[in-house]
Design a protein that fits this description.
Blueprint: H1 2-28, H2 30-37, H3 42-51, E1 55-56, E2 61-62, E3 67-69, E4 77-79, E5 84-85, E6 90-92, E7 97-99, E8 104-105, E9 110-111, E10 114-115, E11 129-130, E12 133-135, E13 140-141, E14 146-147, E15 152-153, E16 158-159, E17 164-165, E18 173-176, E19 181-185
Parallel strand pairs: 1-4, 2-5, 3-6, 4-7, 5-8, 6-9, 7-12, 8-13, 9-14, 12-15, 13-16, 14-17, 16-18
Antiparallel strand pairs: 10-11, 18-19
């Protein structure tokens, strides 16, 4: 009986939070929703993201403090099954961020999908650009790493902590550094 009441309360709380966010998104804009998401309990977060358009698989946990930028909903976010997204990760959703199954993303990792120098004189030389970020299945990304637009990290790869991934990565490989460079291939037969 206690578990049933607990689940009922959790469902009522989720509906209350969701209605509040939907109303505030209409009145104050979607940036308000993005700010409020950083404060949400980890148990509510996945369902709220789904409610605003994200495609998220089963058995996904997302740490608190997650931040989103350049979005009017979360349709550009796809996360597969059995994934972990660490605390305080940053997602630029100008373009698509697609995360496969069995992916572990450590805390404070940043995903950038665009570059835009609109207010700078440099915009004359560097046009605005956006491209998706794709993380294939069974990838590990170490803490405080940055993945830039147009990058695809292939399956079964490991990205070392504090790496800058500015080029696509081969499968079954370890990449480390700024910029991230191939350290070694992973041989699963050994």
């Amino acid at each position: 009986m206690k578990n049933v009441l607990k689940q009922l309360f959790a469902n009522i709380w989720f509906v209350f939070v969701l209605i509040r966010l939907k109303i505030f998104s209409k009145v104050l804009g979607f940036k308000y929703v993005c700010r409020m998401i950083t404060l949400l309990d980890e148990r509510l977060l996945v369902n709220v993201l789904r409610s605003f358009g994200a495609k998220i698989g089963e058995n996904v946990d997302i740490g608190y403090g997650i931040m989103f930028h350049n979005c009017k909903d979360f349709r550009n976010l796809t996360i597969g099954d059995n994934c972990h997204i660490g605390k305080e990760c940053f997602f630029d959703l100008r373009d698509r961020v697609s995360i496969g199954n069995g992916v572990v993303i450590s805390m404070r990792t940043t995903f950038l999908t665009h570059i835009d120098m609109t207010k700078s004189e440099l915009s004359k030389y560097y046009q605005a650009y956006h491209a998706p970020v794709v993380i294939q299945d069974n990838v590990y990304i170490g803490a405080v790493s940055t993945v830039l637009s147009g990058v695809e990290i292939d399956a079964n790869s490991l990205i070392g902590a504090n790496s800058l991934v500015n080029k696509s990565c081969l499968p079954n490989s370890i990449y480390i550094g700024v910029p991230a460079k191939l350290k070694k291939a992973i041989n699963f037969d050994e």
